[in-house]
Amino acid sequence: MPDIINLLPEALANQIAAGEVVQRPASVVKELLENAIDAGATKIQLIVKEAGRQLIQVIDNGVGMSETDARMCFERHATSKIKTSDDLFSIYTLGFRGEAMASIAAVAQVEMKTKRSIDELGTSIKIEASEIKSSEPASTSIGTSISVKNLFFNVPARRNFLKSNAVEMRHISEEFHRVALAYPSIAMSFFQNDLEIFNLPEGKLSQRIVNLFGNAYKEQLVPCEENTDILNIHGYIGKPEFSKKTRGEQYFFVNNRFIKNNYLHHAVMNAYKDLVGSDAFPFYVLFFEIDPIHIDINVHPTKTEIKFDDERTIYHILLACIKRGLGTHNIVPSIDFGLNVNFDTFTNHSPEPSFKQGFTTQKPEPFISYQEKRIPHNWESLYKDFDQDISQNEPLKLVSRVNSMNLPTPQGTINSISDNKSTFQLSQNFIVSKVKSGMVIVNLQAAHERILYEKYITTLHNKFGASQQFLFPLTLQLSPLDFSMVMEMEHEIKCLGFDFSIFGKNTIVVNGIPSEIQSGNEKEIFEGLIEQYKTNQSELKLDRTENLARALAKRSSLKSGGQLSYEEMSMLIDKLFACKMPHCDPSGNPTFVLMDEEKIRQLF
């Protein structure tokens, strides 16, 4: 029987390695930026076209390479960082495996120009699918320029699995943010389709944060610092009132390498306990400096997950650091700083978090449960002024909002509410109404969200939404990423009824909003639309139309705390049951509970 095991051809081995290293355009961006940093660059330029499909180029002013090194860097397992096995446990540099350039060259058309300061001429190398097409002297600047063109041109199946340009650009932007935050002393710029997205001068970390995320961050940054024999922590956290509903602006760096760690994130959230809601995420950029001997960075192929040899102690150091930062800046009323910094005592005295491998924010069950309650002696007084309240309520703008939704007359198993005044609002969160078979309890916010969602879906499909114009236009300065995203969705956002135009770099002027949105909180609505869109994008797989309709419905729907008139309640219920899916809001939570006479009897 002949032998069946053979060595893989070099080109095929490179393609297989590329499957681990080059998952999407953002993977290429990460590798090239890290190589530029390891080359000692003080200025780095990133150029991207068609979300990296057409071109990814990184230009740096680092030390450059000789002709031999330029050729060697495209060989597998070729690296300048590792010489002995001991070096694996004392790594401070970023790229060290020696697979990146070989993997990229296996699935793209690559051109490199590089030159050292001691050389008169540099080197130009062109490689296509691991095959060197040319290698010759070239006149070029000191440093290195690498162009990666037509990514996955020879692996069409991989190219077909790439997401939309908007999604791929979001991943590229995330990688750029991570590198830019880790190295504020390096000047960096970022161009997308010939449009400058970022131009970041070298400076302090606080300046880099503001330049990346926008001027609004000037007022929310709180410095944090903790120095111990085990590790040093420094960076910035955000004030609780600036927390967002989306998780995305949270960054941990260990020895300047970005990591993800749910256990340490739990420590930050624990420090913010009672300061932010369970569904809110505070901003933080935190750096850990620790001896590499205490960490293992080879846990995950992308090196975003690492292991600490004493994770529990680090958890409590971080918790104390965040609490101290919040307390020092008078953000919390009082914090006990009598905590013993001898962290050996934590083993016996400090409570361990309830779980270690990450955590989730639990949502309340979307069903109403009924428990036996003691009936108060003065129950009759609850209805004493009921009729009077119904007639004296000041109408809100819900009537005009719901009237603008040209929906059909409600039909179905649930009859319209009766003509008498048997409909009332309970704790400003629910509407209780008598129906033929018993009573219906409507969740006010969920019901209005369903009504708005179906209206916005129809509006987007019709590609026209009515707009109410402002007497005085609203100027909004957005972060570069948010501005880029708004420009990507400009047509759809305008179809919803928003009227806006570009006004300078990362700035828009809003001249009108959808007609059914209550005026007075236009800024919150527009910014909330962007935040909710990003939240949906990170948690759900939705197309752009569905995402925008859900996002605007959630951010513009009625919130608890408002009192409705009888006419408004009646109209809300009628419009709800005119919807195609009245039983649940867009997220699947119930909009109402029907209590027939039999269910009511069971309560007693």
Strand order of the largest sheet: 5-4-3-6-2-1-7-8
CATH architecture of the largest domain: 2-Layer Sandwich
| Derived structural class | alpha+beta
User: Can you say what the CATH homologous superfamily of the largest domain is?
Assistant: MutL, C-terminal domain, regulatory subdomain
CATH class of the largest domain: Alpha Beta
What share of the residues does DSSP label as strand, in percent? Answer: 15-25%
Number of domains: 3
According to DSSP, the number of beta strands is: 22
Range of helix content: 25-40%
Provide the CATH topology of the largest domain. Answer: Ribosomal Protein S8, Chain: A, domain 1
Average pLDDT reading: 80
* Main sheet makeup: 8 strands, mixed
Low-confidence stretches: 333-420
Distance between the termini: 82 Å
Radius of gyration: 29 Å
Q: What global shape is seen?
A: globular
Number of helices: 19
Give an account of the 3D structure:
The protein is α+β, with helices and mostly antiparallel strands. It has three domains: 191 residues, Heat Shock Protein 90, CATH 3.30.565; 145 residues, Ribosomal Protein S5, domain 2 (2-Layer Sandwich), CATH 3.30.230; 235 residues, Ribosomal Protein S8, Chain: A, domain 1 (2-Layer Sandwich), CATH 3.30.1370.100. Helix content is 33%, strand content 22%. The chain has 19 helices and 22 strands. The strands form five sheets. It has an eight-stranded mixed beta sheet. A five-stranded mixed beta sheet has the order 9-10-13-11-12. A hairpin with a 2-residue loop joins β11 and β12. α2 packs parallel to α6, α13 runs antiparallel to α17 and α13 crosses α18. The longest helix has 19 residues. About 15% of the residues have low confidence.
